[in-house]
Amino acid sequence: MPRVVALYRYPVKGFTPEACDIVKVLDQGRIAGDRVLGFRFANSGAPEAAWSKKHEFVALVNTPGLARLRLRFDHRALRLRICLEDAVLVEAGLDGQGRQLIAAALESHVLTLDENPLASHPERLPLRLVGDGVTPRYQDNEAGQITLHSRASLAAVGHALGSDGLSELRFRSNIAIDGLDAWEEQSWIGRRIRIGQVDFEVVAPKTRCLATHANPDTGERDLPILNTLTGAFGQKKPTFAIAMVPSAAGGRIQVGDKVSLLD
User: Fold this and answer.
1) What is the Cα Rg of the chain in Å?
2) Most CB atoms within 10 A, among 19, 54, 130, 255?
3) pLDDT single digits (tens) 106-144
């Protein structure tokens, strides 16, 4: 019987995860506390509270060096701290002054990186810290969608790359499970599954982007994940993990919960 072995949420889009023992799936189909903030470019036409594509944000897809930053978000006090190794780059709340302070500190750091989306695009400045810190909004898909992969699939990709210690953090899934054969979760597309208290419809395979090339520790693009997925596994599009939405109400999922097919 497959079981949940790890749970993650990402308070700020494109930044480091929070490993969780328990997550709450909202009825609307997103995980509470997941992607509740983001650093959006100034020239984005999207209102602050609106969803927009990841290419309108500072994120791993365009700024791999973000992986070196360590982030802590206090979900109750609505206070954000960003560190580089042992140095605190910024810590502030989400009032107007705090948002400006946080955005300016992140902007200054990003501009020091060799690969960044700001240096040659002054129209993207100043960065805006968007989101209320409570409402999940900034997932890659406008519908939200919770993502899941199996560690057997992860091991298969690692083997193809010659990297047996491949980190699942590259793929930024919400749920990691064990107890399946490699790629078995891809056969669940169009089916329903139950995890903990929540029934899900598995709606799509998850197509990957350049964010997966960023080493979660060093921030360097060091492995050709996309070419490996298409070349070694014969995929038309580089695919890893599955996307799901609740088929009814949300509920709680915790590490150790069983994963079962319903149809």
Assistant:
1) 18
2) 130
3) 999 999 999 999 999 999 999 999 999 999 999 999 989
Q: What is the pLDDT of residues 226-249, one digit of tens each?
A: 999 999 999 999 999 999 999 999
Torsion angle, CA of 33/66/61/43, rounded to 10 degrees? 80
Q: Would the pTM count as exceeding 0.70? A: yes
Contact 18, 2 (CB under 8 A): no
Measured CA to CA, the distance from residue 117 to residue 114 in angstroms comes to 10
